[in-house]
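Objective 1b: paired records.
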Amino acid sequence: MNRPPLRTRARALLLLALLSVTGAACSPAYVMRAAWEEARILNRRQPIARIVSDTATDWETRDKLLLVLQARQFAADSLGLNAGDSYTLFSRVESDTLVTVVSAAPKDQFRPHTWWFPIVGSVPYKGYFDPEDAAREQQRLEARGYDTFVRPSAAFSTLGWFNDPLLSTLLRYDRVSLANTVIHELFHNTFYASGQAIFNESLANFVGGRGAIEFFCRRDGPSSETCRTAQGAWDDDLLFGAFMEQLVTDVKALYARTDLTRDEKLALRERLFADAQRRFADEVRPRLKVDTFGSFTREPLNNATLIARHIYYDRLHLFEDVYRARGGDFLRAMDDIVAAARTNKADPYAAVQALLTPSVGG
């Protein structure tokens, strides 16, 4: 299964900056570059249906484009997601990396550095179309004493403000990852809690993972390879999420200690990170069914790299618990979670947790 590393299909959220040139986090040069790149993408759009019907289109491309159309239709008809005209068009881009995403965090705090954008509020990452711009931002942040993480992204979402085309960068994904991505992105078109980027991404991870299971197991049958792979991928996400929760708890506990100096905390965290990677290799990875997390043991850890991963796996078990409490009714679970999140914009996780708490006298 060729899933994008570290869920780098994550939103760069660049184009929403166009809604306010005066936004505090958006310089005019940044906005203009985003506008230029979006215009190039939109100008290259072609209807997917036309490409599929073209006899010159190779079989693999045609097969994946048909899958995208089927997954988006399923998301709209069976899951009630706001598909609009997203993923009915295709745009070819020049490289495998569409944007370069920068994340940062203080070295002695498990707290993401954030950037503010109109509409979406604060987000713990910022995307750049020019890798050199991303490198300069990384250097600026490191000079201020931050941990940093720079990673490629194959796509971004405009959260429904534009009819996002399928980008050629996504065609390298396997079928299950591709359908998962389409459903994940369309959920962002449907619901996005301003200023709650981590909740949004983790919930979209749940919807994409469980939605892909619904799609393939209904379409291809419960014994099909695609159904089993989609289920295995989601089981892996839950397992990795549980591992991450424990690691994050340990890191936060270390930083909260008052008997240690900052230098002592930084030295101890390196031992904690090394131990976590060993435990992952020895105890977690052998239990994975699809195993898309190999990079966790290859790449160095710091607060920024850890937070970048954690964004997509924060309290995944909470959404899964609601799903199971609803008897495996995915649509009901998703609707209840969204409705709950709308009632508590300051802490949507607490609202979802309340779905699992029996009412007094109930």
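Objective 1b, second protein:
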Amino acid sequence: MPFGRPGHGEFGTYFVAYARTPAIPETMLRRVFLGGPEAGPDPLPDYSRAVTGSLFFVPPANFLESLPEG
């Protein structure tokens, strides 16, 4: 997903991943920066730099329903 803040000279992409476990996006990012068994690192980091990062946990509905009231 592209983004930009022209007044700050920042342009780039957001890495967005949805997965059942954090291991999947972590593996994807590891392969971007370090490469994997089939190929070397992705060339994207040659042209960009990471400014920030976040990982969010979104619980499933049945987990939320199982929480006690109050």
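The beta strands are 2-5, 10-13. The longest strand covers residues 2-5.
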